[in-house]
Design brief:
This protein is mainly beta. The chain is built from 3 helices and 35 strands. It has helices at about 180-185, 455-460, 465-470, and strands at about 35-40, 45-50, 55-60, 65, 70-75, 80-85, 90-95, 95-100, 105-110, 110-115, 125-130, 135, 150-155, 165-170, 195-200, 205, 210-215, 220, 230, 255-260, 265-270, 285-300, 310-315, 320-325, 330-335, 340-345, 350-355, 360-365, 370, 380-385, 390-395, 400, 410, 425-430, 450. The strands form 5 sheets. The protein has a 22-stranded parallel β-sheet that branches. It has a 5-stranded mixed β-sheet with strand order 2-13-11-5-6, with no helix packed on it.
Length: about 475
């Protein structure tokens, strides 16, 4: 379940003391109750990644002060970036797209993560961190002194990667690999890349908003599904995408890929840590078009409202998707197979699909629709046909727990419950956890149960991912995709 957080707090795993960490140099006297234990990159460290964030581990949970600044200085002493500790957010460019709001200092438990602007550091350079004032305090408001002399040197040159062969780039949150962030690795890949490239994320938590455009033939692969985590509290309140003159569309997704063909996401957790009621907050947004060939497999997707948004062609298998309001939505077409869809509150909505009459929507084959403990009354889908006259959600051989209401489907703001030609709220062979057929006598009148006899041809079509997704693509997982242990 998602962990509630303060405006500048993140849901983090326990601190990982990787090889890039060391004890800080001697500092002025600290409050006895709270002191600095470790910093990263270590003071005087060499071979730091050029995309490294700063980390400070305290002996107990700190608080943010209302004053102070953290500055990045190059080897000439010039300030190249500065964070005002009293400002909870600031603007930055991510993946080449400007005007993201982000939280430059994130707190959780004993750790602070400090993120400067992207693409700031060069190879083979020494950088200094200058602390002005006291950005952190103990719970009693006593200032905590950070190291007076904190400097490190970046590695001398970029990772050596083949130009025209399958490439593998390794990312470690502790800075011990090619890159320290997923965005840093993505930024190293040129637009319209055609060389098959795997971005392999070592276990750890990566506190980032990630954006990619026109990066093709990519596989983003985690080392362990539960231990490789992308986490950030991005949402509509933080990044209001309704502002005029805002090119590039949604900025509220934690991970967003636009016009990326042949993108595979596998074996990791995407956790948008925005609390319940914190507005729309996608873990993943894919805008890939009709020939995107996107594959999502063995993922845990965690958020509340609008967890997963897919506009374009995608195949999704063996994933768990958590949320509460329209937490799977978009235009599709998408084919789900062997997935678990879990509602986190009563009377939730699993989907809201807005496909056109010319394309398919979201199809679920052998999926489980369940809820958190005590959750009931949830709807499989809803739509307002007066606004979106086409909407397709088809369930084939799915298991529905008591979290799903008897009526199961709904029209919003539309008085006529009769079937409409381009709204397909269809089920075939829905069963309960006991494998017995669901009592469908109270289903919404505009929905339909497909008959194994009368609708055999229709069922066969919808069970075929190639037919649903269009074109000539048959989604096949890449060979040797998952690490062997």
């Amino acid at each position: 379940m998602a962990i509630p957080h303060l405006s500048l707090a993140m849901a983090l795993i326990p601190f990982f003391a990787g090889p890039a960490w060391s004890a800080p140099p001697a500092t002025a006297a600290l409050p006895v109750s709270l002191k600095v234990i470790q910093i990263s990159p270590a003071n005087g460290a060499a071979n730091a990644c050029t995309d490294t964030p700063l980390h400070v581990l305290f002996s107990a949970p700190p608080a943010l002060a209302k004053s102070g600044a953290i500055q990045f200085l190059d080897d000439t002493g010039a300030v190249i970036d500065s964070i005002d500790a009293s400002a909870p957010t600031r603007r930055k460019s991510i993946g080449g797209l400007p005007n993201f709001n982000d939280c430059p200092i994130l707190l959780d438990g004993n750790e602070a993560t400090i993120a400067f602007n992207n693409n700031l550091l060069a190879y083979g350079k020494t950088y200094h961190i200058k602390i002005t004032g006291s950005p952190f305090t103990d719970p009693q408001g006593h200032p905590i002194d950070l190291p007076a002399d904190w400097h490190f040197t970046t590695r001398p040159q970029p990772p050596a990667l083949p130009a025209d062969a399958p490439r593998r780039i390794t990312i470690s949150a502790d800075g011990s690999s090619d890159f320290a962030t997923l965005q840093g690795a993505l930024d190293s890949i040129p637009e319209n890349n055609t060389t098959p490239t795997t971005l392999f994320l070592r276990n750890g938590t990566y506190h980032e908003i990630v954006y990619a455009s026109a990066k093709h033939n990519l596989t983003i692969l985690g080392e362990d599904r539960q231990k490789t985590i992308l986490a950030y509290p991005n949402n509509q309140n933080l990044n209001n995408t309704d502002r005029p003159a805002m090119p590039g569309g949604y900025r509220r997704g934690m991970f967003r890929a636009v016009n990326c063909r042949d993108l595979t996401l596998a074996n990791l957790t995407f956790h948008n840590t925005t609390p319940q009621g914190g507005s729309q907050a996608e873990a993943i947004i894919l805008n890939g078009g009709p020939d995107a060939h996107a594959i999502l497999t063995r993922l845990d997707l965690q958020s509340f409202q609008d967890t997963l948004q897919i506009n374009g062609q995608a195949y999704i298998s063996d994933c768990q998707i958590d949320g509460d309001v329209d937490f799977m939505w978009g235009t599709g077409p998408v084919f789900f197979e062997n997935c678990t869809c879990r509602a986190l509150r009563r009377n939730a909505f699993y989907t809201q699909i807005r496909n056109t009459a010319a394309t398919h929507g979201f199809i679920y084959d052998h999926c489980l629709f369940e809820g958190a403990t005590g959750v009931t009354g949830c709807l499989l889908s809803r739509i307002d046909p007066s606004r979106f006259p086409s909407s397709e959600v088809v369930l084939l051989n799915c298991t529905l727990t008591s979290a799903v209401s008897d009526i199961a489907w709904r029209f919003d703001n539309f008085s006529n419950p009769a079937p409409t030609p381009n709204v397909h709220f269809w089920e075939s062979n829905s069963t309960g956890p006991d494998a017995k057929p669901i009592d469908d006598s109270h289903r919404f009148p505009a929905s339909q149960r497909l008959s194994n006899d009368k609708d055999a041809g229709t069922i066969a079509h919808y069970a075929d991912p190639k037919w649903v997704l269009g074109g000539s693509w048959s989604p096949i997982l890449p060979p040797d995709l998952f690490p062997k242990h």
